[in-house]
TrEMBL record, chain A:
Signal peptide: none annotated. One of its GO terms (molecular function) is phosphorelay sensor kinase activity. This is histidine kinase. Keywords: Kinase, Membrane, Phosphoprotein, Transferase, Transmembrane, Transmembrane helix. Residues 242-437 form the Histidine kinase domain. It catalyses: ATP + protein L-histidine = ADP + protein N-phospho-L-histidine. Pfam families: HATPase_c. It comes from Aliidiomarina maris. One of its GO terms (cellular component) is plasma membrane. The chain crosses the membrane at residues 162-182. Its EC number is 2.7.13.3. InterPro entries: HATPase_C_sf, HATPase_dom, His_kinase_dom, HisK_dim/P_sf, Sig_transdc_His_kin-like_C, TCS_sensor_his_kinase.
TrEMBL record, chain B:
This is DNA-binding response OmpR family regulator. One of its GO terms (molecular function) is phosphorelay response regulator activity. The modification 4-aspartylphosphate is found at D51. It holds the Pfam family Response_reg. GO terms for cellular component: cytosol; protein-DNA complex. Residues 2-116 form the Response regulatory domain.
């Protein structure tokens, strides 16, 4: 699951579930607070009623009727008081008219009871009730004060009318923040992705740039692994090179004996030496070509080839061959050593077979074209020369490995090789790289 | 022709020495760059066979030093390295040709002779003066189209004179280039051997330039 999706899910839960729950709790608390304050008012009114209650000398009850609030005198206003014994009502506010409230029969004397009740016309009431005993009065008196809960409901509604839009607004704001947060906190990841892509395209050899602490660790570790990879590869190449180097001199010694043995033995020894030589060079070439998949910087072919071209122009001059190079400046995504290896081997091959001239052409469109005016080859057999150890010409010294190395390298870069008849009269080798490289 | 072989592997150096001697070369061997440096400063050579991997430094560095010091010795480098950048770096230090180890002995001889020939101004492997022909690859001398029988020492003398022609070659030069280092002859021996060679060639191929040395020329047809 993507980090984006994870973040969306957790934040979505927060916005869609936690936020409404919070609002609901807030609503509950507010309702409770409003009800309590309503109850406190009722209780205060109840206390006033009880304080105003007197037993008359005749054994009746006297009561100040109005309680200073006109609503107790308006019929069914929602605000009521009532005095009652267990059996019958004694007195009630004018607002009750002919209706009576039902007292709570379970009350204990002196206890305050706050409860919901039903008033005239099914009004929902909050009722404060206390049972009192007055000296000189025989019965327990249920004193009740009731108020219409519409007032509470109205207040809660008013609160909610602010609360819900507020919650929706906060939710929307959180949503916007979520998007921004995703953008912002995932930005380093995107940068890392970008850096990785550049690395893959070979535009850089390490992940570059500063990253947040959490990613920097990963980036550093990755770079360490890349560096170690490079070291291992270099060491592998070095080992292969050292091995090859140390074997080549003894082989050269052995070769000097070939001509001095009986022809039959000499041929045998020669073949065996050639085999060893091929194995060494082929494995060495493979160790070097292993880097072909390693991504590298695009290089200027002309510049990378300068030492090899300088060398061959001198070699050809000394061997009495004309060497023509036509190369445009072209940037190729290829390791310089690999390009040198390809061109070096092709030129070596050409300079061995040419009678009087060699040509090298390279540019982005063409690829690489090496031609000579040597005897050429039978094109039907052409493919064979790229196989390890196959030599079409047993006369010219060499191990027949050079072109196999070229084939191996070109293959590693997914390029193609075509053999043809050169206009000069000899062999023409044409190498083309895929567009990703050229 | 006198060649210096610089190769740290003693077995290979010995084998190269035998191989070159068998083909008529005079050979000195150095196993280190320092030895080679000493020999090059003190002796005269026609060619240098130089291994790039020497125990006391890269052969390329020595070659560069010699080139900087103005020593224009034709040089064939031997390299076991297979990377072209290394090969090119070694070569571009001032070599004339290269061979990659393990090389074919025949190719070594071929390259070496071609190098020496070109350095002395001959493009073709067949040297010809008048009716006298020297095939440098086969070490074969033809006079009027017929093979001429020569001893190894006579062949070396003639070959050196033919390569040098038409320049005059002094006795000292001949002593330095044709004879072993520790067996350098007095001028008497050279005169005697030149005398024998003259007899075999007939005509006036070898001219003595008084006080200067010998010169190989095509005899005038009237003679």
């Amino acid at each position: 699951m993507s980090i984006k999706r994870r973040t969306v899910i957790t934040s979505g839960f927060l916005i869609l579930f936690v936020l409404p729950s919070f609002a609901w709790l807030l609503n509950l608390a507010f309702t409770k607070a409003v009800t309590e304050s309503f109850d406190a008012r009722l209780q205060a009114l109840l206390n006033v009623v009880i304080a105003e209650l007197h037993v008359t000398p005749e054994g009746g009850l006297s009561m100040v009727e109005s309680l200073g609030d006109r609503r107790f005198n308006e019929v069914y206003s929602g605000w009521y008081w009532q005095l009652a014994t267990d059996n019958e009502p004694i007195a009630a506010s004018r607002s009750l008219w002919d209706q009576r409230l039902t007292p709570n029969p379970d009350g204990t004397v002196g206890n305050l009871i706050l409860r919901d009740g039903i008033g005239p016309q099914d009004q929902r009431l909050r009722v404060a009730e206390r049972d009192v005993l007055l000296t000189g009065y025989p019965d327990v008196i249920h004193v009740m004060v009731g108020g219409d809960t519409r007032e509470i409901v109205a207040e809660v509604r008013a609160f909610q009318s602010v609360l819900w839009p507020g919650i929706v607004a906060i939710g929307a704001l959180l949503g916007v923040f979520l998007v921004l947060q995703l953008r912002w906190s995932l930005a380093p990841l995107r940068r890392m992705q970008f850096s990785l892509a550049r690395f893959r395209r070979g535009q850089q050899t390490r992940l570059q740039g500063r990253f947040p602490v959490e990613l920097q660790g990963v980036v550093d570790a990755l770079n360490d692994v890349l560096a170690r990879d490079e070291r291992l590869l270099a060491r592998g190449r070095e080992t292969a090179a050292n091995l090859a180097h140390s074997l080549k001199t003894p082989l050269a010694v052995l070769k000097t004996y070939v001509g001095q043995l009986q022809p039959e033995h000499g041929r045998m020894l020669g073949q065996e030496i050639t085999r060893m030589e091929q194995v060494i060079q082929y494995q060495l070439a493979r160790a070097n070509a292993a880097g072909a998949h390693q991504l590298t910087q695009a290089i200027d072919a002309r510049q990378a080839l300068t030492p090899v071209l300088t060398m061959f122009s001198r070699v050809c001059q000394n061997r009495g061959l004309a060497f023509n190079v036509r190369g445009d400046t072209c940037m190729w995504l290829i390791a310089a050593e690999d390009l040198q290896e390809i061109i070096g081997n092709l030129l070596e091959n050409a300079s061995k077979h040419a009678h009087s001239q060699i040509e090298l052409n390279f540019d982005t469109q063409l690829g690489i074209l090496v031609s000579d005016d040597g005897p050429g080859i039978d094109l039907a057999e052409g493919e064979n020369i790229f196989q390890r150890g196959v030599r079409l010409d047993e006369q010219t010294p060499g191990s027949g490995i050079g072109l196999a190395i070229v084939a191996e390298l070109v293959d590693a870069y997914a390029g193609s090789i075509q053999l043809g008849l050169s206009p000069l009269g000899g062999l023409e080798v044409h190498i083309q790289f895929p567009t990703a490289i050229a | 022709m006198k060649v210096l072989v610089v190769e740290d592997d003693r077995t290979l150096a010995e084998r190269l020495c035998e191989l070159l001697q068998a083909d008529g070369f005079r050979v000195d061997v150095a196993n280190t760059g320092a030895d080679a440096d000493f020999l090059i400063q003190t002796e005269r050579y026609d060619a240098l066979v130089l291994d790039l991997g020497l125990p006391d430094g890269s052969g390329a560095n020595y070659l560069q030093q010699w080139r900087d010091a103005g020593i224009e010795l034709v040089t064939l480098i031997l390299t076991a390295r297979s990377s072209w950048s290394d090969k090119a770096a070694g070569f571009n230090a001032g070599a004339d040709d290269y061979l990659t180890k393990p090389f074919e002995p025949a190719e070594l001889l071929f390259r070496l002779k071609a190098m020496i020939r070109r350095a002395k101004g001959h493009a073709h492997p067949q040297l010809q003066i008048g009716e006298l022909q020297l095939n440098t690859h086969l070490n074969q001398v033809l006079l009027h189209g017929l093979a001429l029988k020569l001893t190894a020492q006579e062949l070396r003398l003639l070959s050196y004179l033919m390569h040098a022609a038409p320049a005059i070659v002094s006795r000292t030069e001949l002593a330095e280039h044709v004879y072993e280092r520790d067996k350098e002859p007095d001028s008497n021996v050279i005169d005697v051997q030149i005398g024998r060679l003259r007899k075999k060639l007939g005509g006036d191929y070898i001219v003595t330039e008084r006080g200067q040395g010998y010169r190989l020329v095509a005899p005038r047809p009237s003679d």
